[in-house]
Structures are given as structure tokens and as C-alpha cells.
Amino acid sequence: MKQVAILGATGSIGSSTLDVIARHPDKFRASVLAAHRSTEALADLCDRFRPDLAIVADPACEADLKAHLARRGLTTAVAAGEAALSDAAASSQCDTVVAAIVGAAGLASTLAAARAGKRLLLANKESIVMAGPLLMRALRDGGGDLIPIDSEHNALFQCLPGGRPELSAVGVRKLTLTASGGPFRGRSRQDLGAITPEQAVAHPNWRMGRKISVDSATLMNKGLEVIEAHFLFDAPPEAIDVVVHPQSIVHSLVEYVDGSVLAQLGNPDMRTAIGHALAWPGRVDTAVKPLDLVALSRLEFLPPDRATFRCLDLAYAALRAGGTAPTVLNAANEIAVAAFLDGHLPFLAIAEVIESCMDALGTEPVQSLDQLIQTDLTARHTARHMMRRLHC
Ligand SMILES: NC(=O)C1=CN([C@@H]2O[C@H](COP(=O)(O)OP(=O)(O)OC[C@H]3O[C@@H](n4cnc5c(N)ncnc54)[C@H](OP(=O)(O)O)[C@@H]3O)[C@@H](O)[C@H]2O)C=CC1
Ligand SMILES: CC(=O)[C@@H](O)[C@H](O)COP(=O)(O)O
Ligand SMILES: [Mn+2]
């Protein structure tokens, strides 16, 4: 029986993970459930899944969570604060950690799980973008497995022999990530001037949290995924390609030197990637609707519109610059997307803010976690300053 800690249990990935776990009570148990501030939703999950421990990252919410649990007659142990997330991720209360917190807030617990040698199911792409070299080192030192659950990287993992081999040793020429193109595929810059948050989060194929949905709309999600692929598979930037595939049926492809191209296909439902990662190297039924190729009939592939959706090339530039540049990119993006969602920044200005932060801060070689945390804070401060200069 796998004991699974779900960090970000109240979110979209958390809920898909719990759906898979609920279908296999003989194989998986949700032993730790964590959220940020959604105490009532977390207490409801405790009622249904009976974990050993429930965590709220915001210490101010601890009393509220306890009250919700007591009202349900539950005696679940409660912990609070960011350190409690890392402690639980490294503890004997779990052997598997689903890193499903959104944003850089997930970094510490993701690193803790890697260092402790847990099976790490990585959804929190911001942590690997922010601190890729340190996360990969922690993983090697900890000796555990990392199985990506971001759908594209899970697809690549499935198309590679042995999951994450040395690419040149197994004859890989190129990794191709598919992108849906988001809700604004085909639009020009002139069409995007007055985009609202509600329009931006209306993803055509996936139901996801608000931050990643905006990232999909700007193509920054694909940019973050290019950097994620670089660190996960040790692939150089020139060996990572992006193709727009509006149906989100082909989740990514691996091209080999003999001309073979292996792809992973499936209906767009995160339970496939999550079920694969939970059960790997086995397989479990996830109740995902089987693919009907004849009903689909047509799959399209197009080049990304890099001039309209500039975030993709900003991410490639950060990856090529190396060092702390991806940390800056990620932090500036988090600040700009939050401001857009709050109605304080126009959609097209997201890329402007990120680019001006990258220009202002440049890059330095990665030395330590403290340095990256400081870079993240500086980039957030710079992004706020740039927003005031550019748009307020
Ligand atoms: N959704 C998807 O299909 C996919 C998501 N991902 C990645 O997975 C991650 C999660 O995405 P998604 O599930 O969509 O996001 P959601 O916004 O739906 O959920 C986010 C979760 O993280 C928790 N959380 C937010 N802030 C903090 C914090 N500071 N400390 C601790 N917990 C926090 C939330 O708790 P609370 O409810 O209390 O706010 C919630 O449980 C992201 O990195 C995303 O890029 C990757 C591929 C696909
Ligand atoms: C489900 C998943 O993995 C998301 O990252 C998804 O890929 C977003 O869709 P886009 O291809 O539009 O970025
Ligand atoms: Mn993805």
C-alpha cells in the first residue's frame, strides 16, 4: 500500500489525484493532505479520505481547520506553516509525495521530498524552473524516483526507455512538447488588448487552476515546460521543440536518430498521467474515457505564434542564459500573472514585465538555495517596480 502525501490537495491536481486514489483503496492511501487556506474544503477531504495528518500552509488558518474537523467529529492531526509541509514530505508518514502546490511556494516541500528519497510526483513546474540544478541534485542525493505528472513530461517519460535515461545514450534526437495554443490561439496582438481574466482562464481542453490557465493563454506554460524538460531529461535547448496541437490528444513526442517518433496519446484528463505515476512501473484503471480515433478523425499540428505570444521565447532566452535567469523569469511571471488576475495589469503587459525584469537582473551562476530565494525575492520586487513604471 503506497502512503501518499498530497501537497495542494484542494486544487485541480489534488482533486484528480484523490479521484485515482479513491478508485484503488487496496493500492494507495492519502496519508497527508495539505492546502494553503481552504480549511473547509480540506476538512471535507479529511472526512472522506481519513489521512493521518492535515496541514494548512497559512498558520493563521490552523484554528479554523481544527474547528472544521471537530464539527465533523474528526480527530485528524493538524499542522500549520510552510515548515510543516517540508517536515511531512520528508517524514515516515508517506513514501510518495504529490507536489501539487502552485508556484514557488512549492519549492521547499518539493526539495524536502527529493532529499528524503520519496517517490516524487512532480506537478509543481515552478519549483524545477526556479531551482532546477538544486532539485536534480537533491533527487540524486536522496536516491528516490521523480515521475513527472505535467502531462507533456509524463508523455516524454512514457516514450523514453527507462523513464529518464541519458538521451544521447538511447539515441534521442529531439523532444517535442505539444501546446494547445490556449484560448487565444489564432488571435493577433490587436485582439488581445482588452482580454479579461475570465476569458484567459477559459482553457479549451483542460480544467486547471487560474495561474496555470493564464500561463497557457500567454504560452508561458509551454515556456516553463521547455525549462522543465531541460532539467528533467538533461536536454539542451536546441533539442526541445514546441508544436501547437489544438486537440491536446498527443501529449508530447520523442524523436530518435533512426527516424522513429514515439508519442503518448490520450484524452485530455490529468488522471492518466497521475495514475501512471502513482502505479509506475505498473498501470491502474483511472476511468479516463478511452480514445476514439475515428470519432476524433483529425489531429492538427501548427507552429507557435511566437510574435504574438512572446512568453515562449522569453523562456527559451532564460534557459539559454542559464544560471539564475529561469528563477527571474518564474518570479516575474508569478507577479505579473497575479496582477493580471487581480485586474491591475493588461494581458499583453505580462510579457513586457517579465522581459524588463530579465533585462534588469541578468543572470548569475547558481550557487545555493539561499541565493535563489534571494533572486526570487529581488525579481518579485523588480517586477512590481516595472509594473508601476510601465502601467500605473
Ligand atoms: N491543473 C492541471 O491540470 C495541471 C497543473 N500543473 C501544475 O500543478 C500545480 C498545481 O496546479 P493546479 O492544481 O491547477 O492549481 P490550483 O490553483 O487548482 O491548486 C493549487 C493548490 O495549491 C495550494 N496552495 C496555493 N498556494 C499555496 C501556498 N502558498 N502554500 C501551500 N499550498 C498552496 C492550494 O490550496 P488552497 O486551496 O488552500 O488555496 C491548492 O491546493 C501548478 O504548479 C501547475 O502548474 C501541471 C500540469 C497540469
Ligand atoms: C494538462 C497540462 O499538462 C497543462 O500543462 C496543459 O498542457 C496546459 O495546456 P497548454 O498546452 O495550453 O499549455
Ligand atoms: Mn503541461
UniProtKB/TrEMBL annotation:
It catalyses: 2-C-methyl-D-erythritol 4-phosphate + NADP(+) = 1-deoxy-D-xylulose 5-phosphate + NADPH + H(+). It is an enzyme of class 1 (oxidoreductase). Keywords: Isoprene biosynthesis, Magnesium, Manganese, Metal-binding, NADP, Oxidoreductase. SUPFAM superfamilies: 1-deoxy-D-xylulose-5-phosphate reductoisomerase, C-terminal domain, Glyceraldehyde-3-phosphate dehydrogenase-like, C-terminal domain, NAD(P)-binding Rossmann-fold domains. Gene3D superfamilies: 1.10.1740.10, NAD(P)-binding Rossmann-like Domain. Mn(2+) binds at D150, E152, E225. Belongs to the DXR family. This is 1-deoxy-D-xylulose 5-phosphate reductoisomerase. It comes from Tahibacter amnicola. The lineage of its organism: Bacteria, Pseudomonadati, Pseudomonadota, Gammaproteobacteria, Lysobacterales. The gene is dxr.
